[in-house]
Specification:
Elements lengths: L3 H31 L5 H9 L1 H16 L9 H24 L5 H21 L6 H19 L2
């Protein structure tokens, strides 16, 4: 049974996450435009600021809960996190270098395009999805098509 307090907390977290994501995108793009055609140093420094932010979040989790689950501390799991981190770093670096040359809305669309491609790769590797997930993929692809085609 979900209480009203839980629903309000979830709605508040969703709203804060959405607002912070939008503000981060807008300010990142705004800084990129203000610095001219090659704002790479400042944008890389801004991206690098996320490392201590996430490290402090991890330290807070360890301090308040007593640590991470043993299942998440295996070499296999850590290797997966390293691969995810490297891919995320490459995506971030690509975004930094594309910032002065690619419109902001197109950057956001291309990031959303990763979702259908991830699902297609998962399907090729034997993954399974439910109908709502397929509908979400179609919705994203429709939005991409409409934006790119000018509709």
């Amino acid at each position: 049974q979900i209480t009203v307090q839980t629903m309000l907390a979830q709605a508040s977290c969703f709203g804060l996450l959405l607002a912070s994501n939008v503000l981060q995108r807008v300010t990142f793009k705004f800084v990129g435009y203000a610095l001219g055609s090659y704002p790479f140093f400042v944008l890389i420094m801004i991206s690098g600021a996320f490392v201590p932010v996430f490290a402090s979040i991890c330290l807070a989790i360890v301090a308040t809960t007593g640590g991470f689950l043993p299942e998440t501390r295996t070499w296999r799991c850590l290797g997966i996190y390293v691969v995810i981190g490297c891919c995320n770093a490459m995506q971030g670096a690509g975004m930094v270098f594309a910032n002065p040359h690619v419109p902001g809305y197109l950057q956001a669309l291309l990031q959303q395009a990763a979702i259908p491609f991830t699902c297609f790769i998962s399907l090729a590797l034997g993954g399974h999805f439910v109908s709502q997930q397929y509908a979400g993929i179609c919705f994203i692809l429709l939005g991409l098509f409409m934006q790119i085609s000018g509709g």
